[in-house]
């Protein structure tokens, strides 16, 4: 198993893309926690992590586009776009790695919104970057 923090997070998203969420378990520490601050939820342990992903009422298999992963040592941040074919969301995820395992994950799932009219003359639309779909 990889021990470099960025490589561990890359492997995490690769395994998530398999839609066999149990394959992620070996990457998670025994005391793993996932926090979703926007909904005030904490998930403890690999088993609950697997279940919350497997039980999610998706329209189809999940596809993941890794927009960016940055990090060093024990901290890694990823920006990933997720779709089940019917809905698309973006996750900004903050990983903490210790002893080659993910110990903590804090995820933000921001809702997109249109640019306010007052600044339309100052901005331009962002063209999505070419990213790796896994």
Question: Would you spell out the secondary-structure blueprint of this structure?
Answer:
Layout: H1 5-16, E1 28-36, E2 41-44, H2 45-54, E3 63-72, E4 75-83, E5 88-98, E6 101-108, E7 132-133
Parallel strand pairs: 1-6
Antiparallel strand pairs: 1-2, 3-4, 3-7, 4-5, 5-6
Description:
15% of the residues are buried. The model has no long low-confidence stretch (mean pLDDT 93). The chain has a single domain (5-110, 125-133), classed as Nuclear Transport Factor 2, Chain: A. 16% of the residues lie in helices and 40% in strands. The chain has a seven-stranded mixed sheet, covered by helices on one side. It has 134 residues and is an alpha+beta fold.
How many beta-strand elements?
7
Q: Tell me the distance between the termini.
A: 19 Å
Average per-residue pLDDT, rounded, comes to 93
Order of helices and strands: HEEHEEEEE
Task: Report the principal-axis shape.
Answer: globular
| Strand line-up across the major sheet | 2-1-6-5-4-3-7
Query: Please, how many domains?
Result: 1
Q: What's the alpha carbon Rg, rounded to whole Å?
A: 16 Å
Q: Quaternary arrangement of the chains shown? A: single chain
**Name of the CATH first level:** Alpha Beta
């Amino acid at each position: 198993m990889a021990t470099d923090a960025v490589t561990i997070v890359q492997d995490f998203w690769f395994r998530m893309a398999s839609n066999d969420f149990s394959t992620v378990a070996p990457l998670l520490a025994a005391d793993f926690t996932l926090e979703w601050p926007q909904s005030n939820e904490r998930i403890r342990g690999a088993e609950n992590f697997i279940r919350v992903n497997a039980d999610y009422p998706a329209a189809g298999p999940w596809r993941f586009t890794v927009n960016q992963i940055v990090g060093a040592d024990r901290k890694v941040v990823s920006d990933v776009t997720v779709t089940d074919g019917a809905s698309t969301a973006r996750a900004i995820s903050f990983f903490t790695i210790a002893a080659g395992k993910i110990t903590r994950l804090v995820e933000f799932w921001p809702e997109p919104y249109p640019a306010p009219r007052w600044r339309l003359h100052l901005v331009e639309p962002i063209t999505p970057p070419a990213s790796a779909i896994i």
